[in-house]
Structures are given as structure tokens and as C-alpha cells.
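FW: tagging you since you asked about this chain on Friday. Here's the raw sequence from the shared folder, copied in full. Didn't touch anything.
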Amino acid sequence: MATEKSRLLILVDNEPAQARIITSLAKRENWRVKTAESCEEALELLGSKEGSEADCLLFDQRVAGDDPCDYIRQVRSASEVSVVMIAGSNSPLQAVEAMRAGASDYLIKPVVPERLALALRGAVRGDSSRDELQPLAEKLPPILDFDAMVGSDTAFRTALAKAATAARGHGHVLVEGESGTGKEMLLRAIHHASTRSKGPKKLVNCEGLPANTLESLLFGHEKGAFAGAFERQEGLLSICDGGTLILDEIDTVDREIQERLAAVLETGIVRPTGASHGFRIDVRILAGSERRLEVLVDEGKFSPELFEKLSPTRITLPPLRERMGDIPALVRYFLSEFGKQEGNKHHSIADSGLSLLEAYEWPGNVRQLQTVLFRACVHERREALTAHSFPQLAELLGEADRGESKSRGLGTLLYAEDGHIRSLSEIEADIIRLAIGHYRGKMTEVARRLGIGRSTLYRKLQELGIDNAA
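HL: got it, structure written out here
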């Protein structure tokens, strides 16, 4: 493969405007780009001396015709190059089929700069079809309800309770937390549960957007306000009047834009660039930050005025490594949701798979866990996910780093490691042991909760070989 300084992208696209944009974005990420207008031309290029050095092939689904997955298989059989597909819609079925065919990632039109950068970075990290620990460029469909925020950790539940209270209010909200902890999902849930839920709403991921682009996007501009301003553009602050503007990764915003936004929140008046006067607006800001803004203010890297406006309701989401006990519940929730998606089947998880997931520290947090499970479900043909369903994770951790699943006592497993359903007597014995432990050996309460008599319970203990002190 090519070195980092000479990474080569083969772009398969016959739409000149899109090809120019993607080429420009890829060059910013230090990629050389060779463009092919047809799938056949790209395969020929892959077979050439120059094409053999390619790290990634990016193709528009439309160019491949009726069966883009067949084209992915052709490319993967001809080369070890990573394959990324550009799709016209965010369909889980498309993603599942493309990844099963061998794609490492997929992008949705119009291609967002940071999503493309993420996909290209992932393309040079090894086996593209099973690179389970790398994030997907396109996020899985978000769920907007607080009930979808799974976990019983105290700090996490405190954050959710604070968010639920904030949703009923009218003030601005700041959610801080590491990447992948669920900030964007929580911000969406706050809006969804708020009195402004039926009002206008826009979400902007500020990371990676050039300062001038973000400035026009937020505040708008008049025709002729600067070179290239050929038309008047209404800003999102005006568009969201009476509603909500969600600004994720606000810690990456240029300082001058921070000051301008703080002034808008102070006065309630937004003035587009080049305009002679401003407009009064009523906008609620829900902001997300990967870094602690208080620290950035102390370092002189964030506007104190904007921090003051955003921080009265300040919520911190803990990283997954600080709430590892929530992993079993998160795993079962995600598997249930994946099973509802078209193209996916329902999976359970064996103890070997769960103990493996519990042994990893998850630097990418809940989002990384979700991606790992999604990839495993895409590729696993058996009913239950086992340690074998996560080969890279198993290799990374090794046998010495994991033991019995910490989820023992939190539930019972329906599947053995071979993917077959466990016997009814084994499952029944597990449930009785869990009940005895949960009710601290109070056998009358155990029998009542299980819906059986005490004599029946003692008979089952004898039949199943269970110590009643378990």
C-alpha cells in the first residue's frame, strides 16, 4: 500500500460537480485522486501499476447501476483496496448489503466533509470488510426519546434527569462529554421533549467547517457582502426563529464567531453579514462540546460571554469506561434495534462475546460499541454473537485479559457459544439462581416472585442441583 504521503484514492463518478468537490476535499486530507467515469474504467485502473498502489476506491452507487453490491465484490476480488460507497439515501438495508459485500464504509449525498475525512482515515487501517473497531462515517439512525438512552449508572442517570428537566424549560443548554458518549442524541432528545418540538429545528456539526462557511450558515449574508456572495443567504439563526438550533462540537468554532453568537444571545438581534440592520429573533441554543468549555475559557480559547450564556444548564455525559456495568443492557438494546432494521436478523449474544465487550475500555464510547455490534451483526450468520464474532477485539485483548462476563446476575443467556439455544433446564436453573441472589436467599419471596409454591421451589432446587445458598 502507499505511504501516508502518497495515498491514492480512485474516485468512480460521472457527475463532474460532485467529483470536483470530493477531489478537493480528499486533497485537503493529503490524498491524490484519480477519477474514473465508469466502473469498468476503475477496474482497469486498479489493474495498472499506478492503480495497484491505491488505498481506497470511492464510488457513487448510481454509477454502478442496479447492483452496486456486485460491483463491490468485483473490486474486492480484484484488489485488497478498501471500498466506500456513496448512497443516495440513509437506508440501513443499503449499508448492511454494502458491508456484507465487502465495503468498509458508506457515505450519504450530499457528501459532508468530516464524514468523507472519517471514511478515508478508516480506509487505511487494515481489513476493510471487518475493521470492527473503526467508526462508520455515516451514523446509524438516531433515536429521539430519553427512553433510548440506556443505562443505570448514577452519573449517567443524573445527567438524563437534568436533561429531562431542561427539556421542559426555555433556556440554552450545554452538553459536554467525550466523542461518542451520546451528546448529539441527548441534544435531539431534549428538543424532542421540549415545548419547541414542533417549531423549526436545525442541527450543525461545527467541526471541520471553515470559519467563513459557518459564519454565513449561522448569521446569513446579503448579496455582494463579500467576494462570491452572488445571492442573499438567510442564516440558521433567523430560520430557527421560534425554534431550536443545535450546535454540536461548539468548542471548535472560531473565536470571532463565538463572540458574534454571544452578542446575538445577549441582544436577541441577528444581523446578517453586509446588512444595514438586524432582526429580532427568539432561538434556543442546544450546544455540545467534546472538551470542557470552562477549561477552554481559562486558557483563553473560548469566549467567556458565550460560555456564560450557555452554561446555566450544563450537563456532563460520563464516558463508557466509567459506566462499564451498563454494557450488557446497551448490548441487548442495540441488538434488539438492529434486528428491527430491514436486511438484519435478530441476534443474541453468548457469554464469551459479552465478556469480551466488557473487557475493552471503549475509547470511542457508546458510538464505538454500537458500530462494533452493527458490524458483527452484518457479518455473523449464526444466531448468537460469540467471541469469534469480534476477531480484532479478541486478538487485541487476548485470552488473559478477560474472564467470565460481569453480566452474570443481571440476566440469563439464551444461547450457548455454538449459537444453539441452551436447554430449558439450564435456563431455568440460571433464573432460579438469579432470583435467590436478588432476594438474598429469602425463599418465600423467591417463590412468590417466580409464581410457584415453596415446595415446588425446593423440589426444583433438588432436581437442578442448585445450592439454596447460591
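FW: The first strand starts at residue 7 and ends at 12.
HL: agreed, and DSSP finds 19 helices and 16 strands in the chain.
FW: great, closing this out.
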